[in-house]
Design brief:
The complex is a heterotrimer. Chain A is mainly alpha-helical. Chain A is 70% helix and 4% strand. Chain A has a two-stranded antiparallel ribbon. Chain C has one domain. Classes of the chains: A mainly alpha, B mainly alpha, C mainly alpha. Chains in contact: A-B, A-C, B-C. Chains A and C meet through α23 of A and α1 of C.
Chain lengths: 599, 488, 229
């Protein structure tokens, strides 16, 4: 069965590719069927793994798979998001090649989650990286190349680690490594680089904003919500399983990593404020959320790991939801620029509601799925007693409020733009993922215990204690969180507020250009101040914003390119130069062997 | 049973007769060419099927080696034989519809001699005979490169001619050096008497061979002719230069180093670093290259560097990986150059800018090109992946961490420029579908099929690669095959 | 200038290293097993009085076929390359009467001499290659002596093509009859006479024709008549 979970995507990709050529509808439908099967197979949960044998010369390699609880957790998230993204893709009228490459990337992702040995993991990691890049290499070559190069750097580092491990243990099976001397930190760094890059934790994030912004809008939810989880998966595996011994005995490492995660959450949040493109904003938001995950993993307590996994789930739900909303809006408006939209609340109410709940979750407000995870992280950092870290992570959550507000205000609130006067609600298929994602968004917010059931089992596999909980209640050393109670309270407050608003509101509808200053009508100036929304923050942080790690990576890339340009001239000489090379090489060899040649 | 020697002499005989066929009917030339290559392919298959059960010794003039020239086809020779004749056969099909400048018969004659020469190089068991076939291969290649007689072709041809002649002269010097010391030209015989050599002689001979054969095997810095020659030559000629010729040169180098001279640590180290430097320089040079054909030429050089690097590691595993990588290089580069040839017919010039959207216009060709390139990059489940991973595993086995890192770096650079090219091929939408004739696609399809097949069943090559690697490592076995007097 | 001096130094140095390497054992010491056998058994094995010839045509006959091909290729490739370069034709004056008359009489003699050399290759020094070159030199003389002297391209091509083909054919007959390529399927004959040496004279005659026509072809294309001659 596990085999078919993976094979279904590859098979489905090919079938959908063929069928989508004559008819897009049939192609998309078939893709959906093939993508639902894994979901159906995964939900009842676990069975054994399987082997695929590849006799490869000179090494006898095989691919092996197994379904662990951790893998199951992430695979289920991924399978769900992929199926949902196909609805949206159907509305966007994506072509056959998109179906093929996105199916393949989903299959690759499944393979990553189900791999039982490093080589399999690497193989599917590569497939995932390549085919996810192929979904948008045609329209946005630059960002796709950037993404693939970052991915390759990561996965080749992983490959190097794999080779070292194979060299020293003689096995490629994913098992805890009982150290091989002083090289563990080096191997571990190589090992986690791939996942670090994939989960876009700083400083290896620069690929993410452009890749998320430029990938097909229906694919981005899966890209951000699920593909990045392969990074989280790998980090969990590395910290608490493969290198658990090292990780437990070297607290400094975890501490540093927690700092990296916290700073990622904070900085990415700040960058998110300043984006004019909704997808870029969400991209940075996504990076920020995964920063929380990294932070929790770095802390390394039961509570923080549970928190991290919860945030990972939450991120998959709300971030994808938000991206799906953008996709829906794009279908009608043809833009993702915040500066070009506004006032769509009346035109696209369902999208608005979805976005509203999405940002509530993103900002980490109960009773949504965004809250319990963050609550656990805060509790964990307080328990650990790291005040500076706590400060950083709290500051990060402030940025979430700010960018979330900007998102909903710019798109849905304010006056309606003229050109969108005739916009309708998005087509039904594009709304399907929005509506369906609202269910887990609220359900897991109200009853976080059901998730913690799973994470507890995962934690026990790694030798950690679980987090005490009931379906609706979570307990930490410092306090209790009751999702249901908070939810009822919040719901009641919302109802009351809404009634107050309905009864006492005295708002006035004005058009976009109906404005005046000092009694004088300012012709043609939009009242909707979406551009330079957070100008004041930008001004304050001017110096900080100039420090960009992209600059460093670009510099390296430019350097390699420049080197290529110089070296190219080696081959651009005339024949005399070539002969000189040859003779000089002879001379070099004679010099090299002068001891033997006796002169 | 077909004697493998026929695969050398029949093409020679038909090449001599090409003018007659041309006089008979101008169209018949390419069909005669195809028929001869088909025969060679048949001979290669027959030979290939037999080499695993035991090497084939072919003597000439009825006198046993080392007194007369002999051919010896072990697993290594059999593998390369099949590979060479196989791709040559596909090129011959491809050439059926190609536009070739007059005089056509001369082109096919040169091509035929080129294939015959390369075949001779891999089959012969005699060092001087190897030189003779090196010359045949080389001179026909110079003629082929310059055949278009335009500026680029002539420039490439002349550069290749000069460097190639210097190279073969140095090779000849090496042969002379060995002959002066051991008094025999038979490779197995020399190998058996290599103890007679003083160390300086051995090293000097190695240097001569390395520099001399490095020209054909495209090692830095002897490979400077490659970009010009590849770019200037007719498309199919480029394909055969990159696939067959470079491998023949490489085979000669490897055979000489491993079998004849005995693989000293110093020699292998030099091969390793020469290969690595070749790889890095070529990949870096390709990075900013605007002309796609030239870019793939650099990539070809880089791949040769990678293969030489793997040979330089010298372990049994590494040799198998190197051979596998060489096989994949042949397959991929065949696909790339042929599909590029198809694209070139639709557009003016092969600059990257001119090829915008070509993948939409020629969807099948574009797809095949992409698969070829991705196999080269090592996308899983294409045959290039398995050879690359084997190669890296052997690198790790020998704890060569620095070279490992450099190879990975080169792979990233390679991935960048190939993916950029593929991206450009699929940029834009307003392109009309106008795929090329099926007969021209057929050879590329076959190559891609092999790539896919090996991608899922890499094991089918296993016994051959292992046998070939053993043949290289086991010198006394090789000597025994020839001198021990196998029945002809 | 310094670069050139440096390179010359380097080349000289290469020569020196080569010399050191080669002088480790002097050339022709008794270790030369293979040539010893040629000297001892060659005459009886091949029936050729000229041992060098038996080495060239039989023992290393496969090489010789290759060398013939190289020559053939060189001629072809040269023609292909030369026709790409524009050469300036220099107007030449007609040679003197003495020259042309002498050439006319010498020409058949030269041809005859060439033929003699390659027919007697297995008996006396010489053989197909020198014989062919002598024949070509006859044509060179004619090219020099007569501005308008033409050699038909067809004739040359037919000669060299057929000679090459028959060479391979003889080898194949050996393969068919005796199981190995270029095996001498004719009897050695009476030693030291014209009819001895098995297939050696046959092959040398073919080589003579082939080399003669190829060298003539090279001279012809150097003369620049490929396009309109």
């Amino acid at each position: 069965m596990t085999f078919w979970v993976i094979a279904s995507y590859f098979l489905g990709g090919i079938v959908a590719y063929v069928l989508a050529r004559p008819s897009r509808k049939i192609g998309a439908f078939v893709a959906l069927l093939f993508s639902i099967y894994p979901l159906y197979a995964l939900i009842p949960a676990l069975d054994g793994g399987f082997y695929l044998r590849f006799t490869v010369i000179p090494y006898y390699l095989h691919l092996s798979f197994r379904l662990t609880l951790l893998g199951w957790f992430f695979a289920l998230i991924a399978a769900t998001l992929y199926s949902l993204s196909l609805f949206s893709a159907y509305s966007e009228k994506r072509d056959s090649f998109f179906l093929l490459s996105s199916m393949f990337s989903a299959g690759g992702l499944m393979g990553v989650f189900l791999a039982a040995d490093y080589l399999t993991l690497f193989i599917f990691f590569e497939i995932m990286a390549f085919f996810s890049a192929f979904t948008f290499i045609r329209e946005h070559r630059r960002s796709a190349l950037k993404y693939i190069i970052y991915s390759l750097v990561g996965s080749y580092a992983f490959l190097a680690a794999l080779l070292v491990i194979n060299r020293s243990t003689g096995s490629l099976e994913i098992t805890p490594l009982s150290g091989f001397g002083g090289s563990v930190p080096a191997v571990m760094s190589l090992f986690i680089l791939a996942f670090w890059v994939k989960s876009a934790v700083m400083p290896f994030h620069p690929w993410a904003p452009s890749a998320y912004a430029d990938s097909p809008h229906s694919y981005t939810p899966f890209f951000s919500g699920a593909l990045s989880k392969s990074g989280v998966y790998g980090l969990v595996l590395a910290f608490f399983y493969i290198f658990a011994g090292f990780f437990k005995s070297h607290h400094a490492f975890g501490y540093i990593f927690a700092w990296i995660g916290a700073l990622t959450a904070l900085f990415a949040g700040i960058y998110a404020l300043l984006q004019d493109d909704a997808k870029k904003l969400l991209a940075y938001s996504s990076i920020s959320q995964l920063g929380y995950v990294a932070f929790g993993l770095g802390l390394g307590t039961s509570l923080s790991i549970t928190g991290s996994l919860f945030v990972a789930l939450g991120h998959a739900v709300f971030e994808s939801l938000l991206f799906f909303v953008i996709a829906a809006v794009y279908i009608r408006t043809g833009t993702t620029m915040l500066t070009e939209m506004g006032g769509l609340i009346k035109k696209m109410p369902i999208s608005f509601i979805a976005l509203l709940f999405g940002i509530i979750a993103a900002a980490g407000i109960p009773p949504t799925v965004g809250f319990p995870g963050k609550w656990m992280l805060y509790e964990a950092v307080l328990e650990k007693g790291y005040p500076l870290l706590a400060g950083a992570i709290f500051a990060a959550s402030i940025t979430a409020f700010l960018y979330c507000y900007r998102l909903i205000y710019s798109i849905f609130l304010g006056p309606l733009k003229k050109e969108f006067r005739d916009v309708r609600e998005a087509p039904f298929p594009a709304l399907v993922p929005l509506l369906l994602l609202l269910i887990p968004l609220l359900f897991f917010g109200l009853f976080p215990g059901y998730v913690v059931d799973v994470t507890d089992s995962i934690l026990r596999e790694f030798g950690y204690l679980g987090v005490p909980h009931t379906p609706a209640k979570l307990l930490s050393g410092l306090g209790t969180f009751n999702g249901l109670a908070v939810g009822i309270t919040m719901g009641a407050a919302f109802v009351i507020a809404f009634l107050v608003h309905a009864v006492f509101s005295r708002s006035r509808k004005v058009s976009e250009l109906n404005n005046y200053t000092a009694g004088e009508v300012a012709e043609g100036v939009s009242m909707h101040y979406v551009a330079d929304f957070y100008k004041f923050i930008e001004r304050e942080l001017h110096g900080f914003l100039k420090l960009r790690v992209e600059a460093l990576f670009n510099w390296i890339a430019e350097g390699i390119g420049g080197l290529g340009e110089v070296l190219r001239r080696v081959y651009a000489g005339d024949i005399q130069a070539y002969l000189v090379y040859l003779i000089l090489f002879l001379g070099f060899l004679f010099t090299l062997y002068r001891g033997v040649l006796r002169w | 049973m077909v004697s493998p020697i026929l695969a050398i002499v029949i093409p020679l005989a038909i090449a001599f007769l090409m003018p007659f066929f041309s006089a008979l009917s101008r169209k018949s030339v390419k069909w005669v060419f195809l028929a001869v290559i088909a025969f060679n392919f048949y001979a290669a298959i027959m030979t290939f099927l037999r080499v695993l059960s035991g090497p084939i010794l072919v003597v000439t003039a009825g006198i046993k080696p080392p007194f007369a020239i002999n051919l010896l086809i072990g697993p290594l020779g059999g593998l390369l034989f099949l590979l060479f004749e196989g791709v040559a056969f596909l090129y011959a099909i491809f050439l059926l519809k190609a536009e070739i400048k007059e005089p056509v018969h001369r082109f096919f004659m040169l091509f035929l001699l080129n294939v015959a020469g390369a075949t001779g190089m891999i089959l012969t068991g005699d060092l001087f005979n190897l030189f003779v076939f090196l010359e045949i291969t080389g001179i026909s290649a110079y003629g082929l490169v310059g055949f278009k007689r335009d500026k680029k072709g002539l420039e490439g041809g002349v550069k290749y001619l000069i460097l190639g002649s210097v190279g073969s002269t140095l090779f000849l010097l090496g042969v002379a050096l060995l002959y002066s010391q051991v008094g025999t030209l038979n490779m197995a015989d020399i190998a058996g008497r290599i103890w007679m050599l003083k160390k300086p002689t051995l090293y000097a001979a190695f240097i001569m061979f390395l520099v001399g054969l490095g020209v054909e095997a495209e090692l830095f810095p002897m490979n400077a002719w490659v970009p010009d020659a590849y770019e200037g030559a007719h498309d199919t000629v480029t394909a055969i230069l990159s696939t067959v010729l470079s491998k023949a040169g490489l085979y000669a180098l490897i055979r000489v180093v491993f079998t004849v001279l005995s693989p000293q640590k110093a020699f292998l180290d030099l091969l390793l670093w020469a290969g690595l430097i070749t790889l890095l320089l070529a990949e870096l040079s390709a990075l900013r290259q605007k002309n796609v054909k030239r870019m793939i030429a650099y990539s070809s050089v880089g791949q040769m560097g990678l293969v030489v690097f793997a040979f330089g590691m010298g372990s049994l595993f590494a040799l198998q990986a190197a051979l596998f990588q060489a096989v994949n290089h042949v397959l991929s580069k065949g696909v790339l150059f042929l599909s590029l040839a198809i694209m070139g017919k639709k557009r003016e010039g092969l600059e990257l800018e001119n090829l915008r959207g070509i993948g939409r216009e020629l969807p099948v060709t574009g797809l095949l090109f992409s698969i070829g390139a991705l196999s080269l990059l090592g996308l899983p489940f294409l045959s290039g992946f398995w050879s690359k991973i084997s190669l890296l595993l052997s690198t790790a086995d020998l704890k060569l961490w620095v070279p490992l890192g450099l190879v990975l770096l080169a792979s990233i650079i390679e991935a960048f420029y190939y993916l950029r090219t593929i991206g450009v091929f699929y940029t834009g939408t307003d392109f009309r579908f106008r795929e090329t004739a099926f007969i021209r696609l057929l050879p590329v399809l076959v190559l891609v099929f092999v790539i896919l097949y090996l991608g899922f069943r890499p094991g089918v090559l296993a016994p051959y690669l292992k046998g070939a690697a053993k043949e290289l490592v086991d010198r006394s076995g090789y000597i025994g095959w020839v001198i021990g007097g196998l029945k002809p | 200038m310094i670069k050139k001096a440096f390179l010359i130094l380097l080349v000289a140095f290469t020569g020196y290293v080569f010399f050191v390497a080669a002088s480790a054992r002097p050339f022709g010491s008794p270790r030369v097993v293979v040539s010893k056998r040629y000297l001892e058994k060659g005459l009886n094995e091949t029936g050729s009085q000229n041992i060098v010839t038996s080495v060239v045509v039989l023992y290393r006959g496969f090489d010789t076929l290759g060398e013939v091909t190289v020559l053939f290729l060189a001629a072809t490739a040269l023609a292909a390359l030369i026709s790409g370069f524009p050469f300036e034709r220099k107007e030449r004056t007609e040679p003197s009467l003495v020259m042309s008359t002498a050439s006319r009489y010498l020409f058949p003699l030269i041809l005859l001499f060439g033929a003699y050399i390659f027919v007697h290759g297995h008996l006396t020094p010489g053989g197909g290659f020198p014989g062919g070159v002598v024949i070509a030199s006859g044509f060179l003389l004619m090219f020099l002596a007569f501005r308008k002297y033409r050699v038909s391209e067809g004739g040359l091509i037919v000669t060299e093509g057929l000679a090459g083909f028959f060479y391979v054919l003889i080898g194949l007959i050996g393969l068919y009859l005796l199981g190995s390529f270029l095996a001498s399927f004719l009897p050695p004959g009476r030693l030291h006479t014209l009819l001895s040496g098995g297939i050696i004279p046959l092959i040398y005659i073919l080589i003579g024709f082939k080399v003669g026509s190829e060298m003539t072809g090279i001279l012809r294309s150097l003369k620049g008549e490929d396009e309109n001659g």
